[in-house]
Amino acid sequence: ETLTLLWSFIVSIYCVGGMIGCLCSGYLTAKYGKKKCLLFNDVVLIIATLHTGFSRRAKSFEMILIGRFLEGIGAGIHMNAHVQYAGEISPKRLRGFVNVTCSVFLALGKAVARILGLRDLLGTEDMWNVLLSFSGLVALIQLLFLPFFPESPPYLLLQKGDKAGCLKAMKQLWGEGNYHTEFDDMMKEKAVTKGTKIMNVLEVLKEPSVYPQLSTMLLLLLSLQLCGLSAV
Questions:
Q1: Which of 34, 45, 73, 168 could be a cystine partner for 21, CB 3.0 to 4.6 Å?
Q2: Coiled-coil ranges per the record (predicted)?
Q3: What pTM, to 2 d.p., does this model score?
Q4: CATH no., domain 1-149
C-alpha cells in the first residue's frame, strides 16, 4: 500500500508542477520574453532529467519526486511559451499552420513515449530511468540551437518598444523584404492594448464578458477527459 501511494504521488506531482508552470507562464513570458523563458525552461528540464536519471543509482524516490515536479513546471511553461514563440516568429502566411503543428507534435510525442514505454523497449527494470530522462535530450538540443534565434518581433515591439530590434528580428527570421504591413499591424495592436491591464486567473473567472468562451473551453476539455482517451 505504501509503494502504491508513493507511485501515485510520483505520477500526480507532475500535474501539480504543470499547473504551477501554466499559472506562472503568462507573467514570465510578458516580463522576460518567450525566448528567455524557453531557455530557462530547458535548464529546468535538464536538471529534472538529472534527478530522475540518477534516482535509480541513488535508490532515492525523493529524487524522482523532485525531478517529476520540475518536469511538470517545465511542461506547463513550455506549453504556453513554445506555442506563442513558434507562432510569433513564423511568417504570416504560415502562422496558422505552425500553430497547428504544435498540437500534432504534442500528440506525436505522447505516442512515441507510449511506444518507448513498452516492456520490450525502455519500460524495463533496468531502463525506466532512461525513459524518464528522455525529455532532457530534447531540452538539450533546443538549449544548444535556440540562442541563435532572435526574440519574437511582437515581444520586442509591444513589450520592449524596440522598433529597430523588431525590424532586425523580422529580417533575420524572414529574410530581406518589406515588412511595413506586419509592422503596422503590430503598432495597431499596441495602440489597442495600450493601458489594458493583464488579468490573472481569478480576474478572468470574474469577468462576465468571457463566460461564453470559458464555458466552451471547459466543455471541450471535460469532454476530452471523458472520451476514454486516457483509458486507451
A1: 73
A2: none
A3: 0.76
A4: 1.20.1250.20
